[in-house]
Design brief:
By secondary structure, this protein is of the alpha+beta class. It is built from 16 helices and 51 strands. The strands form nine sheets. Strands 5, 6, 7, 8, 9, 10, 13, 15, 19 and 20 form a ten-stranded antiparallel β-sheet that branches. Strand 31, helix 11 and strand 32 form a beta-alpha-beta unit. The N and C termini lie far apart (83 Å).
Length: 906
């Protein structure tokens, strides 16, 4: 019986992989009853208002009643709260509703800190409140909320009168008319293909529209296979952006359809103001976008010819199937400020272990423990750096997680020792589905303790995934989470060590025989919540349990987890990748805007499967993919079981050489990546950034998503077309800005440039004004780089100045947080003098030192240099000058990074 079940599961999986590219397997808005219903609302026909006679004022919030003229008995309460950091929170919920409304439990990184509120004016028609430089006006009839920064109107809630709140109610008797729902046949029960949704609690949709006067673009709403600027979706035939975590094989590009992640945050941007909305809701959500000036060349020409001077604006409309209205208005006013405000609410990824920022090698599947050991040995034999090997589902016994296949992986401890002895780590996959097999201890325990999600009749839900018949942990049950986290312990997951980390996949959750390849919405979770209420949050509960388990198992090591499903706040626990991409140039190109969008949504630790998961890249595409992927934070090659093996050492020497060169560039820049992740944790600034983030008033940067900034030091633009001999690159900052080509340190001024390329060259620049710390000694893994010396690359700006930072600790533990065992340094260059100083008054007993200093853009005439520090005194240093490259090299300063120093040119 077990064999037949597994075979059926395999057949279903294969059918899914074949059919999932068919768009018909996933809903359009018109096929989702609540989206169809809300989208039919007519602008200006709103039926909601405030009864301001009920207004209650507190130190940090105001409360008032929301009335619905169509359904006067549906009582709603609105609460507006002022929060620290230029943030407002607005909630609307039913008063004594028939059922409680769900609010996400895990997205927020603690309860937001409130700020003082002041009432400026109050009448029956409007109330004005103020906090800091921001004020809000609530207008009673019709309901409208205006947000101002100073006297500048930056956002309007319900500007188009599309506010919607379907209150819970008993099902009308036959012949009765529900005035709020009217004639929608899917309101009380709904079918999609062969699946039936019983909707036992009836319709409960909510929706709010937001207008952003003068905004030019909207960004955010990951995850979609789409461009960075959000497109207009309100044109005829267009679908809204859908946020509903789904397992979509070979997902479409240039598409608003849902894939693996759902992060309901959007930013409206102009050269003068950036404002954000975080829609705090875990149910299926659709988002309509209207850009009045949509970056459309034709409309821009029409406006130019006609003399039209209509101010731009952006409209955003959130529509969710269930839950309370709960949104945060992030007042900015800059891209940097608004992204940091979102980070303050939902948190950031903690400083990862250094190895996780290096190169990872994976495929589905490495078939034996000897295969794994051989791959590692071949990386060493070809001088290719590597930090982690990955195992997909078939390392397990019959796809039962927390077990090992007894024949092919009979000695996991030995295999792991072979890997870790060379400085590497092992990552293994753990999916949420549990095989329903008698005698499998995890399944038996979940049945015994009643830890599975349930059907609406109270029986255990059974779906199909990789093992065949499976059930799914109910991570909303605290006892289930507590049990699950203990599964990662060495006494339970036997054969693992402190150097084994986790990949949580298929956690949307993926259910091969479920509606849209996921769990039915009327499944019941702990607390009585329907799956429709919590769907987008489910993956987060999975990785939260894993994170807690790894901390319990290895309390002195920072956990590494990769997740596919994700929601707002998931970034606190895991890295992500862009899922099942294809070996196509278009998917290489899409990896940059997809990860940039994720970074704006809190997920800096993002990457894409190098070379594409499906199909086989030609060698040109593979090389270009490596050259581009080294500039994304998460860097892993991963591929489907049916593809040809593509480990770098399998290719001709010229291909190996180019991949090796790219890998070494990545490893040389690990100090920069590591420092940026520390600064992400401490300041909330994303590690990778679109151009408009640092150049918000540059309209030419608004639509550029084929180029990204690593921090504010490095700019890269991958080659994303075959046979290219040159690429167009826009360097921001104006004519005074200087950018240095990494290939030869040639200086370019800001503006458009066509840069020549060949297979040995990809396009990377250092920003003039940046100091980039590097480790330039080639090594086989990051672990053996821990004590290597640094080289500082000083890229001078037009004023002959530059600055940069460096973070140093033990690269794996929590000592930097618990006992302040770290160094955080600032380097500054001006007046021909380089200084190093401590930003934080801490210490770490590192052996790392400064091996070399390279100054780009240095004028002729330097005769030498001298260093001054407490341990060295004052010592002359050897220098050399390259007139062609205008670069000065200072050799062997020999000073520890622990002590402040000065290097002076003369």
């Amino acid at each position: 019986m077990d064999f037949r079940l597994s075979l059926l599961g395999l057949i279903l999986a294969l059918l899914t992989s074949i059919l999932a590219v068919d768009r018909n397997n996933f809903k359009l808005c018109e096929q989702s009853s609540f989206c169809r219903r809300l989208r039919k609302y007519e602008q200006g026909q709103g039926h909601y208002g405030f009864n301001l006679s009920t207004l209650q004022v507190g130190d940090n919030s105001i409360e008032t009643t929301v009335v619905n003229t169509e359904v006067p008995t549906a009582n709603l309460k609105l609460v507006l709260t002022t929060l620290v950091g230029n943030i407002f929170r607005v909630t609307v919920d039913e008063v004594n509703g028939l059922y409680p409304r769900y609010k996400p439990q895990f997205a927020l990184n603690g309860e937001p800190q409130v700020a003082q509120l002041e009432v400026l004016e109050r009448s029956q028609d409007a109330v004005t409140v103020k906090t800091g430089d921001n004020k809000v006006i609530l207008k009673a009839k019709p309901l409208k909320i205006e947000f101002y920064q100073g006297d500048n109107l930056v956002s309007v809630v319900n500007a188009k009168g599309l506010f919607a709140f379907e209150h819970y109610r008993n099902k009308p008797a036959e012949g009765e008319v529900d005035v709020q729902i009217k004639d929608d046949p899917g309101a009380w029960e709904e079918n999609f293909k062969s699946h039936h949704d019983n909707k036992p609690r009836g319709p409960s949709a909510i929706g709010v529209d937001f207008n952003f006067p003068n905004a030019q673009r909207a960004y955010g709403l990951p995850e979609h296979g789409d461009f960075l600027p959000l497109k207009t979706t309100t044109k005829s035939g267009s679908d809204p952006y859908r946020l509903y975590n789904l397992d979509v094989f070979e997902y479409e590009l240039d598409s608003t359809m849902a894939i693996y992640g759902a992060v309901p945050v959007v930013y409206a941007h102009s050269s003068k103001q950036t404002v954000g909305i975080f829609w705090h809701n875990a149910a299926e959500t659709w988002v309509d976008i209207t850009n009045s000036k949509d970056g459309n060349v034709v409309s821009s020409l029409v406006n130019l010819v006609s003399g039209s001077s209509n101010d731009p604006n952006v409209d955003v409309r959130f529509m969710s199937e269930s839950g309370a209205i709960d949104f945060f208005v992030l007042m900015g006013p800059t891209p940097k400020a608004v992204v940091k405000q979102y980070a303050a609410l939902t948190g950031v990824h903690g400083l990862p272990q250094l190895f996780s920022l290096a190169y990872h090698q994976s495929r589905w599947n490495y078939i034996t423990q000897d295969d794994v050991t051989t791959v590692v040995a071949n990386f060493d034999a070809h001088n290719l750096p590597l930090d982690a090997m990955w195992l997909d589902i078939d390392y397990t016994e019959g796809r039962k997680y927390f077990t090992w296949e007894p024949l092919k992986f009979s000695e996991p401890e030995k295999m792991i020792s072979n890997i870790t002895s060379t400085g590497r780590k092992l990552i293994v996959i753990i999916d949420p589905h549990i095989k329903r097999e008698s005698g499998y201890f995890v399944h038996e325990d979940f049945l015994k303790y009643d830890f599975y999600v349930k059907n609406k009749d109270g029986s255990v839900y059974e779906g199909w995934c990789w093992p065949g018949s499976s059930s799914y942990p109910d991570f909303y049950n605290p006892a289930a989470r507590d049990y699950y986290k203990k599964l990662y312990g060495f006494d339970t997951f036997k054969g693992t060590t402190h150097d084994v980390w986790i990949w949580n996949d298929m956690n949307e959750p993926s259910v091969f025989n479920g509606p849209e390849v996921t769990m039915p919405k009327d499944i019941i979770h702990y607390g009585g919540w329907e799956h429709r209420d919590v769907h987008n949050e489910y993956a987060m509960t999975h990785i939260l349990s894993t994170h807690e388990g790894l901390l319990l198992r290895s309390p002195h090591r920072r956990p590494f987890i990769l997740t596919r499903g994700h929601f707002a706040g998931s970034q606190r626990y895991a890295a992500i990748w862009t899922g099942d991409n294809e070996a196509k140039w278009s998917h290489l190109a899409a990896s940059f805007p997809m990860c940039l969008s994720e970074a704006l949504g809190g997920f800096s630790f993002c990457g894409a499967d190098v070379g594409g998961f499906f199909n086989n890249p030609d060698t040109e595409l593979l090389q270009r993919w490596y050259q581009g992927a080294i500039w994304l934070p998460f860097f892993r090659s991963h591929t489907h079981i049916d593809t040809r093996r593509r480990e770098p050492f399998l290719f001709p020497d010229e291909v190996i050489n180019r991949i090796r060169t790219a890998l070494r560039v990545r490893y040389a820049h690990l100090p920069l990546w590591y420092t940026l992740f520390f600064e992400l944790e401490t300041s909330g600034e994303p590690v990778i950034r679109p151009l408009f983030y640092h150049y918000p008033d540059d309209e030419r940067a608004l639509d550029i998503d084929n180029t990204l900034l690593v921090g504010h030091s490095v700019l890269t633009r991958p080659v994303t077309e075959p046979g290219e001999s040159s690429v167009e690159v826009y360097l921001p900052g104006g004519s005074e800005a200087i950018w240095y080509d990494l290939e030869g340190f040639r200086a370019y001024r800001g503006g458009n440039h066509r840069i020549p390329v060949n297979l040995d060259r990809h396009v990377v620049f250092y920003r003039g004004g940046a100091i980039v710390p590097r480790k330039d000694r080639p090594r086989r893994s990051s672990t053996v780089m821990h004590r290597d010396p640094f080289t500082l690359y000083i890229a001078l700006d037009a004023k002959q100045t530059a600055s940069g930072t460096l973070f140093v600790d033990d690269y794996e533990s929590f000592e930097y947080k618990n006992n302040k065992k770290y160094l955080y340094l600032r380097f500054n260059f001006e007046n021909n003098k380089l200084t190093s100083s401590l930003i934080d008054k801490t210490d770490y007993p590192t052996e790392e030192w400064i091996e070399r200093v390279v100054i780009l853009g240095q004028a002729k005439g330097v005769k030498g240099a001298k260093i001054t520090s407490k341990s060295l005194g004052t010592v002359k240093l050897e220098t050399s000058y390259d007139a062609e490259l205008r670069s000065l090299t200072i050799r062997k300063p020999g000073v520890s990074v622990r002590e402040p120093f000065t290097i002076e040119l003369f």
